[in-house]
Specification:
Elements (H helix, E strand, L loop, with lengths): L22 H22 L1 H4 L10 H8 L9 H17 L3 H12 L5 E3 L16 E7 L5 H15 L6 E7 H11 L13 E5 L2
Parallel strand pairs: 2-3
Antiparallel strand pairs: 1-2, 3-4
Helix pairs in contact: 3-4, 4-5, 5-6
Length: 203
Amino acid sequence: MDPHREPRAARPLALPSVYSGDTVVEAFAAAIGEVLAPTEERIESLDAVLDPWRAPPAFLDWLIRITGARVEPGWTEYQRRKAVDLAPRLTAYRGTPYGLRLEAKELHGWDPLVIDDPGGVFTGGPTRAGRMLTVTLTAGPGEDRQALEHRLTRLVRAHCPAHLPFKVAVISDQGARREARRTEGAGPAAPAPATPDERSQQG
C-alpha cells in the first residue's frame, strides 16, 4: 500500500518435479505467478490499511467509523490519524478525567485543563456543596476564545456523564496568572478581566 514501495517481482507457481525442464509448463506457471503477484502483494500489506499512520488517506474515514474515533470538521490529516490511534485508549477511559485530559492534550494541545467537580461525581474526589462540573482552559495570546469555548464544550460533552451538568470557561493567560496570585494570597489582585466565555450544558 506504500506508493514508494518497489513492485514485487512475480513469483512463478511451484511445480512438481515431473514438470521440471518442460518449458511450456514453466512458462505457463510464470505467467500465472505474474498475474497473482499484485494480489499477493496487497494481501501481504493488508496490515498497513489498519495502521492509522500507514493507511492511505482514502481509508481514514473507514478507520474512523470502525474505531469510533471522535473527529471534528476542519481537523488536519495528522489530527484524524492521531484520533484513530488514540481511539482504543479513549474508549477505555471515556467519561473519566484521565480520558478528558488525554484527548485535550494529544488532539488539541491543551495542557493542563482545570477541572472543578464540587460533587465529586466526575473526579471521585472530596465533595462540597454543588454539582456543576466546571472545566477551565487558558487561552494563549491571540487565540480566539469563542472558538476555543465551542471546541471545549464539545470535548467536555463527549466525556461528561449525561446526568451531570457542566459549564466551560476560557480565560486569558493574564487572567490565569492573576487568579493564581489571588489564590496564593499574593496581595491585591489587578482589575478583573472580561468575563470568560462560558457555555452550560444541563445534564
